[in-house]
Design a protein that fits this description.
Layout lengths: L4 E6 L10 H12 L3 E6 L6 H9 L6 E5 L13 H14 L4 E4 L1 H5 L1 H8 L3 E3 L6 H7 L4 H4 L5 E5 L2 E4 L32 E5 L2 E2 L10 H5 L4 E2 L2 H13 L2 E6 L8 H13 L7 E6 L6 H9 L2 E9 L3 H6 L6 H14 L3 E5 L8 H13 L4 E4 L5 E2 L5 H9 L8 E3 L11 E3 L8 H18 L4
Parallel strand pairs: 1-2, 1-3, 3-4, 4-5, 8-11, 11-12, 12-13, 13-14, 14-15
Antiparallel strand pairs: 5-6, 6-7, 9-10, 16-18, 17-18
This protein binds cobalamin (B12).
Length: 447
């Protein structure tokens, strides 16, 4: 009997492109189970319909897996899932193979994404165990109940299994090499390819706006240091010398981050690689900042969110303004290039609190400050912020809300919490969004 086969499709066309690290990990897991895996990356396709038709001509995979990374861009408020649906329809025209969806965007709202895209199968959360299981058991609905994170139809209803929680010490993802990184350059003028490496999965914190527990699970699972740094070496061997650590917070737990830096340094890698990471203000010791710098960290994005203790508490953060101040000093003294990211507009935010945030940052002389989500705080389904919105009333009458309020109870399309005390900024936000839609149409067109 010939081996089963899967085609993994990258549907994410947001520019600059993010290399689909998930597909490298999933292809590797499928191959380890004897399943043939091929990748169709549509990120830089100039005509997706044509490329999809050409790719599937003569190919008859058992399953097509489509990764959905972003529902929307949270910055300009573009609803990116609409473009993914176009791609799914094009794939359906080119192939009869069953389709399964997955990815961070999918895991935020699995049932709604399936309904919106007109697909019957999806895997929420990590896919390395579940996807090969699905390939092996396609059509056997009795076996479906034991596939982690699987979302499927049973007697007309959508059923969702609990998320997978693999033991990452037993999952070696370091091989890489399935995804072609050549279109993914650090900037269009550079020849340096860029990539991503994940060091852990899961988050046990309770930030009110966050979707990471839905994507990666609610407890932290660490990957072995050796696997992570082997992977960095393997990427470098493929010419990928620049990468992001694909963690929401690289410095949590701190010992893991330090050990990764030490191993990178011990292998002499900082001579050839450079990397970026998201970090939190805590835990962030002088030793870690120095190790990050020495290990080749080019830029750290510190998600400080706000400069008011009251707001930090409301946002569910486990750090306070003093931790932010300490982190700024530590980074500056270590010479670590850091960008401080704010998230303004959450419940009860006021102009006064906002000005205090800016004042704090300016007084501390940080290197760079950015706003994480311009239109306010994205309200995601199943988040504590969604519960707050439900209590306040999800209706156009709620002056704390902006975005798509009508016919969007499931929050699939972008909805933002922008405290009514900041309503003076609504016209600016609206203009920003219109600018974003234009930018999106010009940069992500070509379907
Ligand atoms: C690192 C990161 C970045 C880096 C990426 C760097 C790089 N070189 O890749 C940077 C800073 C550049 C970035 C940019 C953006 N990001 Co970002 N990013 C992340 C982060 C922290 C990790 C993503 C990642 O790579 N994870 C590692 C991989 C292995 O995990 P994964 O993709 O989820 O895949 C696993 C599963 O989902 C599943 N799976 C995935 N695909 C498939 C497919 C199938 C068929 C199956 C079965 C399973 C499956 O299996 C995989 C392995 O277990 C996530 C938050 C998070 N923790 O997920 C946000 C996140 C994905 N980003 C987000 C956003 C919005 C963006 C931007 C649009 C922001 C902006 N306006 O610029 C851009 C988009 C960039 C682009 N071109 O797409 C949002 C998306 C949410 C949404 N609203 O849709 C997230 C969830 C953060 C958030 N909370 O808001 N990002």
């Amino acid at each position: 009997m010939s081996a089963k086969s899967i085609v993994l499709v990258n549907s994410n066309r947001w520019k600059p492109g993010a290399p689909p690290v998930a597909l490298d990990y999933l292809a590797s897991a499928c191959v380890d189970k004897g399943i043939e895996a091929e990748i169709l990356d549509l990120c830089y396709s100039k005509n997706t319909a044509q490329d999809i038709r050409a790719f599937f001509k003569g190919r008859k995979p058992d399953l097509i897996g489509i990764t959905i990374r972003n529902l929307d861009d949270v910055y300009y408020s573009c609803f990116l899932l609409a473009g993914v649906k176009v791609i799914i329809d094009q794939i359906k025209q080119a192939s009869d193979a069953p389709i399964v969806l997955g990815g961070s965007g999918f895991s935020i709202a699995p049932a709604q994404v399936l309904e919106y895209c007109g697909v019957d199968l999806g895997i929420a959360g990590e896919g390395e165990e579940a996807l090969p299981m699905l390939v092996e058991n396609l059509g056997d609905t009795e076996a479906y109940s034991s596939i982690p994170g699987l979302v499927y139809r049973l007697e007309g209803n959508l059923v969702q299994n609990p998320l997978g929680m693999m033991d990452l010490s037993k999952l070696n993802l370091s091989r890489r090499g399935y995804v072609d990184h050549s279109p993914y350059l650090i900037d269009p003028k550079s020849k340096t390819k860029t990539g991503a490496v994940q060091t852990k999965r899961g988050c046990s914190q309770s930030c009110i706006y966050c979707v990471v527990p839905a994507i990666e699970g609610g407890c932290v699972r660490l990957r072995p240091i050796k696997h992570i740094v082997d992977e960095i070496e393997n990427l470098a061997a493929l010419g990928v010398y620049s990468f992001w650590f694909a963690d929401s917070e690289f410095n949590y737990p701190e010992k893991h981050a330090k050990d990764i830096c030490r191993e990178i340094i011990a292998r002499g890698l900082p001579e050839v690689i450079s990397w970026n990471a998201y970090i939190a203000p805590k835990p962030f010791s002088k030793e870690l900042a120095e190790l990050m710098k020495e290990a080749g960290c080019k830029s750290a994005v510190n998600c400080i969110d706000h400069g008011s203790d009251v707001m930090l508490e409301r946002l569910g953060k486990d750090f306070r303004v003093q931790d932010i101040k300490d982190a700024i000093v530590v980074a500056r003294e270590a010479g670590l290039n850091t960008n401080y990211c704010l998230m303004l507009g959450g419940p009860g935010d006021t102009i006064d609190a906002m000005l205090k945030s800016l004042e704090l940052l300016l007084s501390m002389r940080p290197i760079k400050v950015t706003l994480g989500e311009i239109p306010g705080v994205r309200v995601y389904p199943n988040s504590p912020l969604a519960d707050i919105v439900k209590d306040e009333g999800f209706s156009p009458k709620n002056r704390n809300l902006s975005g798509t309020i009508r016919d969007n109870d499931g929050l699939l399309k972008p909805v933002y919490y922008l405290s009514k005390y900041l309503s003076i900024f609504v016209p600016v936000v609206k203009a920003w969004r219109s600018f974003g839609s234009l930018r999106h149409r010009s940069k992500s067109g070509g379907r």
